[in-house]
Amino acid sequence: MVRVEVHEVGRDHIDRSTVLSHIISQLRPGADLSRVVLPTFILEPRSMLERITKCVPFPCWSEAAARLTCTSYSFMAHPETLLPMSTIDDPVERFVSVVKFYLSGWHIKPPGVKKPLNPILGETFTCHWDYSDGTRGYYISEQTSHHPPKSSYFFAAPEHNIRIDGTLKPRSKFLGNSAASMMEGIATLRLMNRGQNKEKGERYILTQPNMYARGILFGKMKYELGDHSYVRCPENHLVADIEFKTKGYFSGTYNAIGGTIKNEQTGEVLYELSGLWNGEMDIKDVHTHKKDILFNATHAKHTAPIARPIEEQGERESQRLWKDTVQAILTQNHEAATDEKTKIEDRQRDEAAKRADEGIDWHPKLFRPVQGGPGGPDEGDEDLDWILNAQMCEILSAPKTCVDKANPFSDMHDPQLATKQILAIAPILQGQKESPQFQIPPHHGPQDPTAR
């Protein structure tokens, strides 16, 4: 097994003038950052799909995936905030624990100013976490669209009744001396043992702040999280409005947050939030005026995910796909890195051209379109666009494994059954290898222009 840690290659010095002259030649103020090509010496040796699992926020320079700066949430980083949530009986206290968990992941940063590799269409990454109580968390992700870029992911900790579905949909712009990454994706966290709907569980909808890179042409280079993000529980009418504050020219501080937790139905404010997202964050009860530490990120250490050995991975799994590119980056052989990266990108373009010639409609292997709308099986999840193709376990797993064909993961009360279903969809644990069992062929149908 391979523990996925952050490489230290990011600490080497980068000549910003060289990078910036390359960028400036391709950009105009207000431009979309979908076609910016950068030298490989600023690449981080890992794919964006792998990056999602642990490090946020992180700066990255855009290339074909339209990201100059990117933000994603490391929702698995601190199991001490993640795992207890479903055991709390009081709905308000439970909501506060979800907010704590949400805020605990933003402090994690990779070394240096590097960009992760842009995932190709159909690229996948899976991993798991071993927790101190003997349980595990499982992660499955796939690049479900290339233009515009969309990364879909799934996480579950069956013994703790936790499931998360999410999609990252970054939209970036060049703003003169700054660049912004507007994060339009959401994550839906479910506590499967809570809520009135035992099949879908109690839902928590999470959005993300935007990210800004300041001083990219002149002045001090600084990355900030900014604007409002929300944690919302529709079933209990609770919402946290969290402002990630950007520093003003003459006042304020970096990395500050502020916000409230309130009852949306009555408008009553219950708690106030304050502090630094990379330091101590406090929560204050507005009725008793008591202030407590919600989470202290100053010395917090995250739990690293575990990936299968590369020799067990399929050719479109992130670590195997980018193996030669990553090795060249780590040895600072930039010519070889460029060559290997170009091979993968050229293959992706050739595949898209072949599909167009043959009239084949590409679709993800592990995710399916959300079937939302009133009465739909995925009602309320429309913003995800894609969701894990759980029905696949009907044909991939042993007989009688999927007890509920409409929602195979509905029986999260049986951790062994849920785990068996998850492992039937994609290889995650050491010893599992890519095989025909996991291959879903392309199908003919109307072309989807966003999939190419």
Automatic annotation (TrEMBL):
InterPro entries linked: OSBP_sf (IPR037239), Oxysterol-bd (IPR000648), Oxysterol-bd_CS (IPR018494)
Region ranges (Disordered): 336-357, 432-452
GO molecular function: sterol binding
Gene3D superfamilies on file: 1.10.287.2720, 2.40.160.120, 3.30.70.3490
Keywords: Lipid transport, Lipid-binding, Transport
Gene Ontology biological process terms, A to Z: lipid transport
Alphabetized PROSITE patterns for the sequence: OSBP
Cellular-component GO terms for this entry: cortical endoplasmic reticulum; cytosol; membrane
Family per record: Belongs to the OSBP family.
Protein name, per record: Oxysterol-binding protein
Organism the protein comes from: Penicillium olsonii
Classification lineage: Eukaryota, Fungi, Dikarya, Ascomycota, Pezizomycotina
